[in-house]
Specification:
The protein is α/β, with parallel strands linked by helices. The protein has twelve helices and 20 strands. The strands form five sheets. A five-stranded antiparallel beta sheet has the order 11-12-15-14-13, with helices on both faces. It has a five-stranded parallel beta sheet with strand order 16-20-19-17-18, with helices on one face. It has a four-stranded parallel beta sheet with strand order 3-2-1-7.
């Protein structure tokens, strides 16, 4: 492809598909110096993440010059019309937009090639994958199937799923071989643990998304936080964006997503291990993890996530979701920004009043005692303290989950948002 791009003097590329391969192709084509547009039929890139986490990936793509067309599938590929310069073709979107390109890359995901199984009379699931049991036997007990061709049970929701990942496929091969040769081995589902680099960011996920849990009818709660990748006083610490999803009654871990510049990989592996071990968020708070300032903090981001979830489980704090604040009636609920004045330059959430935490106790009289409050700061820690103070004075206060950083990323990427 590189030789073809050089020979054709290609300037514009279009990538169809916002999954792992599509994002990797968009990055590499952009690094190659091409103008890049990416089309995704779903509302956001990276289906392995929820929208509020994928928003940061979209920001990174835009910041690196990738033009995004989201929530609009491809309708056709056509020859260029007069005035349209395209060495490859013009991609026509469902809404009518025409995107000329010199290079078009289709990265539409993986579909099982299960025709041989159909012809052999094997059971094929609704998703198109070969159905297997826990020992990876097909509906014919003499035939086994593994890898991208099979449907697996999701390790959290229990639903049938297509999860085309190299790690699970390799383990399935080992388990099938064990069973074929007389050993009794069981494959107990796929958690979907995966990781991806997009320009300067790393994105990773394990377990179920909120979207998948809603579809499966599983009750859940999520906590967002933004800890540092290692001790803040040691040079090079970067902010992580973490989302941990858990069962509201038991605290059982259900899923996690992380986006950041550093330290994402080791945290997602800890969370994937905890998920496999069926740990709760209380266990996360108690994990003993390696600490030295260049590598982590005395309270690792994993510990902090568990502690934040514990506070919710124990009723110490109530939270409000980033997507709730737009629907708040200012006559009924007070939205309070407790950051310091020099931080307000980044903006306020519409309808919020500035009331720095450092002045809160002296200015309590400004908050009507019968009016609920939603408080936020930059990352959520100071607004947690504010909520504790307000509750001690009889005021119902909720902490904005994920604080300004989660709201700002998600709001900027919401459909119809102004990005000028």
């Amino acid at each position: 492809m590189d030789r073809w791009i050089s020979g054709a003097q290609a300037r514009r590329a279009l990538v169809v598909g916002g999954g792992y391969i599509g994002l990797e192709m968009a990055e590499q084509l952009r690094r190659r110096g091409l103008q890049v547009a990416l089309v995704e039929a779903l509302p956001h890139v990276m289906a392995a993440l929820d929208f509020d986490m994928a928003a940061r990936i979209q920001q990174e793509l835009r910041a690196n010059g990738v033009e995004l067309h989201l929530g609009e599938p491809v309708a056709a590929f056509e020859e260029p019309r007069p005035g349209e310069e395209a060495a490859a073709s013009v991609t026509v979107l469902a809404g009518g937009a025409r995107l000329p390109a010199d290079v078009v890359v289709l990265a539409l995901g993986v579909r099982p090639e299960s025709q041989l199984a159909r012809d052999a009379g094997l059971e094929v699931g609704a998703l198109g994958g070969i159905r297997v049991d826990a020992r990876l036997r097909t509906s014919d007990p003499a035939i086994y199937a593994v890898g991208d061709a099979i449907e697996v049970r999701h390790g959290v929701t229990g639903e049938w799923a297509l999860l085309s990942l190299a790690g699970p496929a390799n383990r399935q091969g080992r388990i099938a071989a064990d069973n074929i040769l007389g050993r009794d081995a069981v494959y107990d589902g796929t958690l979907g643990t995966a990781i991806l680099r997009v320009f300067g960011l790393t994105a990773a996920a394990t377990g179920a998304t909120e979207r998948a849990l809603r579809r499966a009818g599983i009750s859940h709660h999520a906590v967002h936080l933004h800890p540092r990748s290692h001790a803040g006083y040691y040079p090079g610490a970067e902010t992580l964006s973490m989302k941990v999803i858990f069962a509201p009654q038991t605290g059982m871990l259900l899923g996690a997503q992380i986006v950041g510049h550093d330290g994402v990989d080791k945290r997602i592996d800890v969370l994937a291990t905890a998920l496999k071990a069926r740990m709760s968020v209380r266990d996360l708070a108690q994990l003993e993890l390696a600490y030295a300032p260049p590598y982590g903090s005395a309270k690792d981001p994993i510990n902090l996530a568990g502690m934040a979830a514990e506070n919710i489980l124990d009723g110490i704090v109530e939270t409000a979701g980033w997507d709730e604040v737009g629907d708040l009636d200012p006559e009924e609920t007070l939205l309070v920004d407790v950051r310091e004045p020099d931080e307000y330059a980044t903006g306020l959430i519409p309808g919020a009043i500035p009331l720095p935490l450092s002045q809160l106790r002296q200015r309590l009289a400004e908050i009507p005692p019968d009016r609920p409050v939603v408080a936020y700061c930059q990352t959520g820690q100071r607004s947690y303290y504010a909520c504790r103070v307000l509750r001690q004075h009889g005021i119902r206060a909720r902490n904005l989950d994920g604080a300004w950083l989660t709201w700002a990323a998600a709001a900027s990427e919401a459909p119809g948002a102004c990005r000028s």
